[in-house]
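name: query_chain
kind: protein
chains: 1
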Amino acid sequence: MRSFLSAGALIAAVAARSLAPYDYDERKDGFGGEPCRTRLKTESKPLRDRLASGKQTDGTPLTEASISRAREVLEAIDEQIAQCGEMRFRGVDRTVDRGLTLDLGSPTVKLMFLGRGNTAGDLVAWLPAERVLLAGDLLVYPFPFATQSYITEWARVLRSIDRMNVATIVPGHGKVQQDHRYLRDMAELLESIGSQGRAAYTAGMTVEELRARIDLGALAERFSHGDAFINQL
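structure:
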């Protein structure tokens, strides 16, 4: 990252993260300490259970590659759990409506709200002179994750980024992108989920029933990149 990101850009990344609102009230739900540990343990339990059993949820055995990757993921999660005690809540001290320009001397950094996506308050940090965009969790590589997201609006946000004169995209997680191919794959994936969901939904349908009607097989290889572990998620 040092080859194209200055200290100002890194400050912008921190600012973009700290200024973006969370989807839950940390003062009410807890932050750091035991709430943090409980959340990570709960979210990682399905993966731990699969690793302990040696099988996927459908009963097929885990491959050696899947076992190795699962252990790597859980090792990283365990490191995060160990750091939960060091986390402290910091309330919002500055708000952003549509955008905010930070004059750091060099470079100029523009914080922009392009619409709802992964959350209701995703911000990007745009360095126009360097043509670098820090996307946060609007773009995560090698595959996206979404919990309380706005699928169709998220796709529109990614399309708007695609129209910008961006040369380098720094995702919230994963390797830096030097072109727009993965960005477009993400937009297409979200558009497919949205269109299939609208076509399949009928009143009274459960989330599980609707999920079963959505087929992303045609796009899977673009996100698994041949990795058996990702394919089995």
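note: The chain has a mean pLDDT of 83.
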